[in-house]
Amino acid sequence: MKFYNKLIYWYLKNKRTLPWRETQNPYFIWLSEIMLQQTRVAQGLSYYLKFTTTFPTVFDLAKADESTVLKMWQGLGYYSRARNLHYSAKYIVNELNGVFPSTYKEIIKLKGVGDYTASAIASICFNEPTAVVDGNVYRVLSRYFGIYTAINSTEGIKEFKTLAQSLIDKKQPGTYNQAIMDFGATQCKPQNPLCESCPFNDSCVAFEKNLVKELPVKEKKIKVRKRYFNYLVIKTEDQKTILSERKGKGIWQGLYQFPLIESDKSINQKEIVNSEKFIDLFPNETTISLYNKKEIIHKLSHQHLYTSFWIVETKSLKKATISWNKIKQFPVPVLVANFLEEFQPKN
DNA sequence: AACTCGGGGAC
DNA sequence: GTCCCAGAGTT
């Protein structure tokens, strides 16, 4: 029996019921695929429902402000996905008359769409036999065929794409692609895969040679940068504060935060008050107090942010233009959202 | 080729 | 703590 027949047989019996499996609307499939990049189904699901409800068509998404899109994306991470999604929605509306491109070659031109996403959309929506290679596919193929090539090397990326392409069922590429991903997610899992009940355990190289735990091979690990964030949470007597948008490179582009004093180590209240930024911001009298006694360690994949929130009260401040009761309309990082939730449970 | 971009869940 | 998730863009 061919590889794809066995796989699709498994899929038809074991597939998860998911909302984006009920449609071939390329706009919906696109939304789901962008959201699920480096994101578990369980985490992306509610965002998918929220987006498809609020923006039922690409025209609705294109019409929205970027800030609105980011607010809806808040908490999902990798915010460039939301910015690129919005950019591409406007492109589809303005340049393509709202018609979603229908071939891999055209789909991959969209910003935020790479080989994986273009293959997924082309196969699921337009029946084009382009094989997806995501983390699940790397794992399934490296184990089944006993391949040691690092999945994040240039060579590995090429090798696995070619292999995946040779295995696809050209008559039902969309079903095949979803099958191999679902199989990787629920059966051939990273840890404790269900080999004893696996339909491939009579022909899987890794199972036969007891290499399941060694595969797939991945090169090098990331190193984590430590940063020290001191947020100045301003409260004026007329209930205003300052939020500013993060611009340029780095994390959280387009999201908002309180005025930030960053340092390369922990700093105390005296150092805050004597800093250039603080003096520039508050020429007049203020009261400052540390909100969290212990630094909050916010962990990103490449950075650990040691964070202190400083409550700064002052009579009035010209730059403080944002009312506290409107603060939750702004897209903010989870680090800031968590603080606001505790500091201002209302709204 | 290496780095950067979030947040969370499973172990 | 470690790994990694329906990856892509930039340097």
UniProtKB/TrEMBL annotation:
Keyword Lipid metabolism part of the UniProt annotation: no
SUPFAM superfamilies named in the record: DNA-glycosylase, Nudix
Listed EC numbers: 3.2.2.31
GO molecular function terms noted in the UniProt entry: 4 iron, 4 sulfur cluster binding; 8-oxo-7,8-dihydroguanine DNA N-glycosylase activity; adenine/guanine mispair binding; metal ion binding; oxidized purine DNA binding; purine-specific mismatch base pair DNA N-glycosylase activity
Matches recorded under Pfam families: EndIII_4Fe-2S, HHH, HhH-GPD, NUDIX_4
BP GO terms, sorted: base-excision repair; mismatch repair
Superkingdom field: Bacteria
Required co-factors: [4Fe-4S] cluster
Cofactor note: Binds 1 [4Fe-4S] cluster.
CDD domains associated with the record: ENDO3c (cd00056), NUDIX_DNA_Glycosylase_C-MutY (cd03431)
Catalysed reaction, written as an equation: Hydrolyzes free adenine bases from 7,8-dihydro-8-oxoguanine:adenine mismatched double-stranded DNA, leaving an apurinic site
Gene3D superfamilies: Helix-hairpin-Helix base-excision DNA repair enzymes (C-terminal), Hypothetical protein, domain 2, Nucleoside Triphosphate Pyrophosphohydrolase
Domain HhH-GPD: 35-186
Matches recorded under InterPro entries: A/G_AdeGlyc_MutY, DNA_glycosylase, Endonuclease3_FeS-loop_motif, Endouclease-III_FeS-bd_BS, HhH-GPD_domain, HhH_base_excis_C, HhH_motif, MIG/MutY
Keywords: 4Fe-4S, DNA damage, DNA repair, Glycosidase, Hydrolase, Iron, Iron-sulfur, Metal-binding
Function, in words: Adenine glycosylase active on G-A mispairs. MutY also corrects error-prone DNA synthesis past GO lesions which are due to the oxidatively damaged form of guanine: 7,8-dihydro-8-oxoguanine (8-oxo-dGTP).
Family named by the database record: Belongs to the Nth/MutY family.
Designated name of the protein: Adenine DNA glycosylase
Organism for this UniProt entry: Polaribacter aestuariivivens
Source taxonomy: Bacteria, Pseudomonadati, Bacteroidota, Flavobacteriia, Flavobacteriales
Gene name tied to this protein: mutY
